[in-house]
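Homework help board

Subject: predicted structure for assignment chain

Our instructor gave us this sequence and asked us to write out the predicted structure in token form, then describe one feature. I got the tokens but I'm not sure how to describe them. Can anyone check?
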Amino acid sequence: MATALEIYARLQTSPELSWRLLLCATLLLGWMMLFTSGEATESCMWHLLYGYSALLILTAQMSNTVRSFFIGEGVGLIDTIKYYATGAALPAEASSHSATVDERSQVGFFTLMTSAFITWIFAKSINNAAVYGGRWGVLGGVGYAGWYLSFPAAAIVGYYLRTRHGFRSLPEAIERNYGPLAQLGFAIALFFRLWNEVWSNTAVVADFFSTYKSREWWTAAIFSAAVPAVYVVMGGMRASLVSDVGQAGLGILFLIVILVLVSKEMGDVSVWEWKPPPTEAHPDGWYSGGGWVVLASCIQGTISYPFHDPVLTDRSFLSRPRTMLAALCCGGAIAGTFIILFSAIGIYGDFRENAVNNGSPAVVANALGGAMECFILLVMMTSSLSTLDSTFTSCAKLVSLEVFGWFKLPGDVRAPGHRGPLTPRDASVTTLHILIGRVAIVVLAIVGSLYLDAEGDAVRATEVSGTMVMGLGPPVWLSLIWRYNSSPGANDGFRKAPLAFMLSFLPGLVFGILYSAGTWPASSGGPVEGIRSALESTAMGEGSFRIFLGWNVVGHCSCFGGCFLGFLFHQLVPLTNACDAESTTEDAITGERVVRPGYEKAADQLVNATRLDDVTSTMSSI
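My token output:
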């Protein structure tokens, strides 16, 4: 064990020590100012939000390298503690050719599994699960969990794109198969999703502090958007992954406490067996059509919903392929279970009122007060902050690599005329891209928060956004069976098919816009009657989800049909060239790049052009 002087000497060598001390002093000053304002109860809630946020900022890791900021690779917390306490060598200090040491800096199963789990336990999802529980009981929770089939769907797509086709990101595959316009349309869909996540998750947290659009409500909303933006600007993907591990544990702990408190409040009545009294409108007590909710969410969750969320798809390209597949499937199972269990809040809300549809977590927490209110708020804060930090991380990657990859920036070593989306391991990615990513985070935080003035319904955020992007599914699934040239320029593979993407994506967008217009809430002017009638004509099943289900079935069939016709057109009419493959694929177990037969020469050129220096400055990452 090192002496205090040795530990102090190592701390002094850290470039982060001075600004972390300054940051700590600033946060303490802010906390002292908070003590002088607010009523007792409100002040308590604010202290909870402020203290939790301050802890995340102070413990966030700083990323100054491309791999750390965009991929999350870097020195782990345990290794850092060992270094300061004992002087043990950090992974980056040893030879970059040492497999044993190198593994310690990669994203492992546990880190990826917990990160995937907690980042998809959105504050809006927890809110919606409780609302669904208040309408359909436990079946409502199962229905909302249907969207969590996105985990295995994204994991399967990522696995095959990496091991069979060698792609390093989903946008890279879209651009290769469908062209730059398709990749632009895909990027727009991702932007929409990320923007949607900012306002919908901050709104849920703000509801705990005051009424909609009051001064306190706006303060809480802006604060809950600013905090994750701050520590992700600092550390990128590395800060997001490390914070997710702790937040996942806290989220599970808080849920267990809430379930215990709910069980205590309900006495001998089981939360999973209780039913509200029947009424003329609801003879069974619950809303009708719960089974149709499950079917509708499963359709979106497996076919299209996962591919418009870069928070999830980015993680399907982390770690080794087989590790990633296991981590995302396990994380999805835990996340879905979490959502089902949280529907108990909605059921308990109905139990208190002895009537259906009283499941809003904010309303239930406010009615209960005390410990229950604090724990429900803690779950919401944990889920909101973990979701938003991953949202901002994905935004940084989307803007700086996948959009600005089309521009020649200083340090770009690609051949003249070669443009397109970059991946974090490309030699052309520099610290300038990190700066662009940080600016993009700040812009998204501002733009996403401003929309709160127009919309605050978190339930519609899931249903509408999922419907608008139903056209992404067909071209993504088609990419898994794509046939590429047997060697560069052989012209024996499938031709690039821009229409296959556009004839799926654009109709899906139209279906989504029409659904939004036809189901617009009365508080915002009500639905457009003509469109509402068209939606009614496609209704399937019963209950409030009959339109949503019918419209999605018709829409998904139309998108698959459009994708097939566009693909067939390009294969029969030679307007585009056949697609070359990636020169290497990824080994499922080790993650090492394997040369594709017929592409040996291209692989050698790629290695010489894109070799990265794995030996980086150790102290800059601490």
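Reply (TA_rk): Your tokens look well-formed. For the description, you could write something like this. The first strand starts at residue 584 and ends at 586. That's the kind of observation they're looking for.
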